[in-house]
Automatic annotation (TrEMBL):
InterPro entries (UniProt xref): Anti-sigma-factor_SerPK, HATPase_C_sf, HATPase_dom
Keyword Transferase: yes
Source taxonomy: Bacteria, Pseudomonadati, Bacteroidota, Sphingobacteriia, Sphingobacteriales
Name by which UniProt lists this protein: Serine/threonine-protein kinase RsbW
Gene3D superfamilies registered for this protein in UniProt: Histidine kinase-like ATPase, C-terminal domain
Keywords, in A-Z order: Kinase, Serine/threonine-protein kinase, Transferase
């Protein structure tokens, strides 16, 4: 799914997540973790990646791994960010200006997350 970089587009992502919840009969705990984490990643892609530029797009891709994990990949058209530096700040117990709350949410709610080298795409893994 590709959406415009505006906050209203998150409703389209929510609809996709509801469809996945029903299709795979996700329990409420797993669904809540997916909903919060994917919405945070999409919000960050819109706000920080694409700088709220409605001409830029955010892509939300979903797949199941061979082991059954639910994997969501969120990609924006921005310049990326230094996720290694942001993670280092989190591991020291704090939030920094470049990626505090979003990384904490990913760390706590996703079973695994990983960024591409550029820092404009994140894959979120959830184990059922």
């Amino acid at each position: 799914m590709t959406i415009a970089s505006n906050p209203e587009s998150i409703l389209l992502v929510d609809a996709l997540l509801e469809k996945i919840k029903k299709e795979y009969s996700l329990d409420q705990k797993l669904f809540s973790s997916i909903l919060v984490t994917v919405n945070e990643a999409v919000t960050n892609a819109i706000k920080h990646g694409n700088l709220n530029d409605p001409s830029k797009k955010v892509t939300v891709a979903f797949r199941r791994s061979s082991s059954g994990a639910f994997i969501f990949t969120i990609t924006d058209e921005g310049n990326g960010f230094n996720w290694q530096q942001a993670e280092a700040g989190i591991s020291k117990g704090g939030q920094n200006e470049e990626g505090g709350r979003g990384l904490l949410i990913m760390e706590k709610l996703a079973d695994k997350y990983s960024f591409n080298k550029k820092g404009n795409s994140v894959a979120l893994h959830f184990i059922a």
